[in-house]
Design goal:
Organism: Streptomyces tendae
Largest sheet: none
Radius of gyration: 57 Å
Keywords: Membrane, Transmembrane, Transmembrane helix
Number of helices: 2
Protein name: Integral membrane protein
Low-confidence stretches: 1-12, 321-326
Number of strands: 0
Structural class: mainly alpha
Order of helices and strands: HH
Mean pLDDT: 80
Shape: flat
Helix content: over 70%
């Protein structure tokens, strides 16, 4: 009999699992590959935008926020509120604290001492006398209450209420026993009725319908989850391959030609322009600057010499007797 049994699938999986797995994985793979490629494209675009747009904009917004909000608030706190608070504290000390201390020391303290004396010498003896009178009245009321209320109440409880209570308790026990008997009978009838009409059919439906259906649905859900993870990984590989192909296409169609143009065309042209045009122009500009500075320096020296000659011709040499009077006149005019 054992030799006639069909071999079970590997891993202890049933035929239902094997029959469901392949179509579920194919369908999930077809559905997931476009989603994964779109997801990877969105991730790349988000990273590019974050590095090129959002981060600089965030830094600019942060700087503007500091310039518009933080620095004015700091200046307001440091140069307006702190001095104003210091002034208000000084005014509060002068206008409130000092008068309050004087009021406490010279008015409230003497009033407090007078109140303590009045309490000790007047209120305390009066209170003690009132306490003695209240104690006497309390003792009288307690004696009257004991004689007029407590003793009659104890007699009524012992000889009237206690026998009536025992009789009522015995009647209540009989009624409770009768009710319990009726409830037990009705409960048994309802139990067996509910068991036959509800519990047994529900148990049969659970055991022979819901459990098999739940197992099938569990297998389908488990295989769908496994297929989704497998398809997501495969879609990642496909998306990575497509991304690499697109990057290679962009590199060989845009980046490498641009690099070749920059290296083979623009760089030699730039060197020729630098060596043939910019450097001679710069040398000519520096030479013109040197000539201009030398000319201006010579003109300045000539002007100083002419001014010195004119001063000597009009006023004479410094320190000579003829010029001392002229210098004294100039000082007096100043």
């Amino acid at each position: 009999m054992d030799l006639e049994k069909a071999p079970e699938p590997a891993g202890g999986e049933g035929c239902l699992v094997v029959a469901i797995r392949l179509p579920v994985r194919i369908v999930v793979l077809v559905l997931v590959v476009p989603v994964r490629m779109v997801w990877d494209a969105l991730v790349v675009a988000a990273r590019f935008l974050g590095d090129t747009v959002f981060r600089p904009v965030g830094r600019a917004v942060l700087w503007v926020g500091r310039a518009v909000f933080v620095w004015p608030l700091v200046g307001l706190w440091r140069y307006v509120l702190v001095p104003l608070g210091t002034a208000l504290r000084w005014l509060g000390t002068v206008l409130l604290v000092v008068p309050a201390v004087a009021l406490y020391r010279w008015v409230l303290t003497p009033l407090g001492h007078a109140a303590v004396w009045f309490h000790a010498c007047v209120l305390t003896p009066l209170g003690r006398g009132l306490a003695v009178c209240a104690a006497a009245v309390r003792d009288g009321l307690l004696w009257l209450g004991r004689r007029l209320v407590v003793v009659p109440s104890v007699w009524l409880y012992r000889w009237v209420l206690t026998p009536a209570g025992h009789a009522l308790l015995w009647c209540g026990k009989g009624l409770v026993a009768l009710g319990a008997l009726l409830v037990t009978g009705l409960g048994g009838v309802l139990y067996w009725t509910t068991r036959v009409l509800v519990v047994l059919p529900a148990l049969a439906v659970w055991r022979w319908v819901l459990v098999p259906v739940g197992r099938v649905l569990g297998v389908v859900a488990r295989e769908a989850g496994a297929a989704l993870g497998h398809a997501w990984r495969i879609a990642g590989y496909v998306s990575f391959a497509v991304g690499r192909a697109f990057a290679a296409l962009v590199r060989w169609t845009v980046v490498e030609p641009a690099r070749w143009v920059y290296r083979s065309v623009l760089t030699p042209v730039g060197h020729v322009v630098r060596d043939a045009v910019l450097r001679p122009v710069a040398e000519a500009a520096r030479s013109a600057g040197r000539v201009t500075r030398h000319t201006l320096r010579s003109v300045g020296v000539t002007v100083r010499q002419v001014r010195s000659d004119v001063r000597r011709a009009l006023l004479g040499e410094r320190g000579t007797p003829g010029t001392q009077g002229v210098q004294e006149v100039k000082k007096s005019l100043r």
